[in-house]
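Task 17 of the worksheet. Students: predict the tertiary structure of the chain below and write it out as structure tokens. Keep your answer in the requested format; marks are given for formatting as well as content.
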Amino acid sequence: MRSSILTVAIAVAIGSASFTAAAAPSEQELAQLRAQIEALQAQLTALEERTDAQSDINLGTAESLDKLTTGSPKVETTGGIKITSADKKFEASIGGRIHFDAYAFDRDNVSTTGTTDFRRARLTLAGKALGWEYKMEQDFTGGTTTEGFRDVFIAKKALGGKFTIGHFKPYRSMEELTSSNEITMMERPFASASGLYGGRQFGQGIGYLRGGDNYSVGATVYNLRNAASPRNEGVGAAGRVTFAPINNDNSTLHFGVSASTENANRGSADLRASVNYAGRRGPSQTIATTAGASGESVDTIGLEAAGAFGPLYFQSEYANATFNQPIGGSQDVETFYLMGSWMLTGQHKAYKPGNGVFGSAKGEGMWELTARYDTIENKDVANLEATSTTLGVNYYFNPNVRLMFNYTKGDNDFTGDTTGQYAVRTQLSF
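Model answer:
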């Protein structure tokens, strides 16, 4: 606007000069020209004052908005609900998962009941407070008190890694440490708390985890109880190391080794390896037991190999556990599984090198074919062996909603039972 007025003034001046060259103006005409120039100068002065005032207002508004932004908490709703304080010293996020199953059995010589079941129904509160991390997770399928506790801990980054104190999974078994939202099959294999570490998925203690671009190192010392079990003096220790010699956007090759020892003591529950060989809620078989009152231990060594190459994925674990006995010799239990999947729609499973596990592929409208062979055997008791073969298909509506189908054929050499299970899961996580 200011340049427009100046342009007009210049035009008037030029017109005046031209008029003067053509003929001498009268006194009246000169007075009119002076009046016009004074009016233009007044308008220009007024516009300058208004522009300066508006600049002050804009600057004040910007400062006020900046103070409002920096002085208010930040709220994010992508993938869940997360609130961060204005000073960034406190964070809190709310998440959860619903896994709803339906299953039916092709019974052989056992009595089982097909039905529906909430496999998991969890709410999770996690965040940070003054440099410390925390997580509180309740699974309502386990109960509304300590029976439903899952991850309940505080953690602190230090010495290049992270210390965790509370109720969490010991660092052992690749599949056990994979989130239930991202496991390939509906149930975990026998080399986990679904078999070898029966009933000992969580422990109370302290752990340290450190990871880089292609490795992880974790160690845990813990009490032999979860939040709901009786107090006892049993102790355990576990450690796991992983290494990925190949790890890029399209290809990953993973190797790992773990070891654990669990020493029963006063008040300890029995240390047992027990499997549901034909799917969850199906027939079970105890493979080995070390009595809690015996004061003996269970010592385990585990090996891992896994890889994702484009849409193809494989995962395998071997573990040997020695169940020591107060009378007679110890009993060795061996378990092994081989699992694979193929993303028919071409996606790739992502690797998490910081803790040495794979996650689900991300996307919408994805199809995945899955298969697993699983076996466990007591090497010191004749025919005490169980195997299961599982075929499945997963459909991913989106990164938060998945539909799973598994058919599991179980075989119990000890009893001769060959029961099968058809199972479907609808899963939501956020």
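Marker's comment: Residues 298 and 323 are 5 Å apart (CA to CA). Confidence is low (pLDDT under 50) at residues 16-22.
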